[in-house]
Amino acid sequence: MGKHLFMGGIHPPDEKKRTAQLPVEVAPLPERIFLPVSQHIGAPAKTAVKKGDKVLKGQVVATASGFVSVPIHSSTSGIVKSVGPYHHPMGAKQLAIEIEVDGEDLAAEPMAPIADPLNADPNVIKSRILEAGIVGMGGATFPTHVKLSPPPESPIDAVILNGVECEPFLTADHRLMLERGDDIMCGLKLILNIFGLERGFIGIEKNKPDAIAEMARFATQRGWCDIRGLEVRYPQGAEKQLIHAILGRDVPSGALPMAVGTVVQNVATAVAIWEAVTQGKPLIERVATVTGDGVNEPKNLLIRTGMTLEHLVTQAGGLTDDCQKVIMGGPMMGMAQHTLEVPATKGTSGVLCLPASQVRATGHRDCISCGRCVSACPMGLSPTTIFNLIDKDKVAEADEWSALDCIECGSCSYVCPAWIPLVQYIRYAKGRVMARRRELKG
Ligand code: SF4
Ligand code: SF4
After folding, report:
1. Fewer CB atoms < 10 Å away: N or C end of the chain?
2. Is the dihedral of CA 166, 221, 158, 145 positive or negative?
């Protein structure tokens, strides 16, 4: 079991009962899909198709445009209707490829399966991960081939698969562990092989005892990892908190997990890696939870990239009459959406629909200096101080108060009795601090 508790954190109701026991259902094809060329952290992919082109499932429609970039593949067959700005889950419109779906779901020639995958050359595995467009599927969407290529001065001696899924409401990873346990284990083995390691870890919160039991069964059969049941405390699934809980290692301020010899990957990413290597399948589908009291029939769905939220909520019985807010992701770290025309991407782990009665009113009161946000912060920051500084445009001071260490977990906003949207202020502060640092560098 995980031994090391991280500082701060909160205990929001987990709200997972609606979907935790519901098997994953396959979402049917829609009439149109919209594939943003930016579904990952890093340089957007470069469009490789034009209006009128016929495309097949799995075909590359946008190519990687740098080392920190990945290709985008069509998630079904059809005709390219347009290439231009379209709604994006992150807010402003971004370049996307609109495809009129032909309903035949015809597949392109797949990448050849890699023979004897568990003994394959690590560089061949990493090339395949890039070719398949795989990114971190826990929400970070960092290109996986980059994360698996640390510089020689940062040797890796520990690999952790993240099955924590600490965001309330979401059960996509939970179902994956129950339904695809051996694929997760084999994906982990491929990652271990890249670093020449024999054993890894899978971290799972203790509120998923069935998933812990299922993964422990495969761990015993395969002998490649230890399962760690972890305290239920948000944000247990954040990388730095997970590394601390399992290994007792503290990632320094401003550093990445590789600074402490560790790589963390999501369980869904492990499945995507296994499928890319053994089936030649690119990352064009994933499990997502469509849930909340603002949707009629919450579900776990196997979705294709590019499906709109409108299509996904329709598969879950449609929105209730009193639904007021739709969030891409979970309630803590997800992004509120202004339209259901937004497409799901590689990082879409859920769609949360909330009725008016569960949506916090906008507007906030003055800070009462209660200190709850400071106690809740898992990074040891003072959210109220950073909020006050950025509110007064004091960017340099916000930097001195380590605004960039914020992992945007939302714990401070959750506990604030004055309902100050602290995480939004601090996210803004981070943007300003980074811009200032760039300016100073010239
Ligand atoms: S959002 Fe940032 S400042 Fe707020 S609790 Fe999380 S890490 Fe701390
Ligand atoms: S929790 Fe809210 S009210 Fe309390 S100190 Fe922090 S910002 Fe101020």
Report:
1. C
2. negative
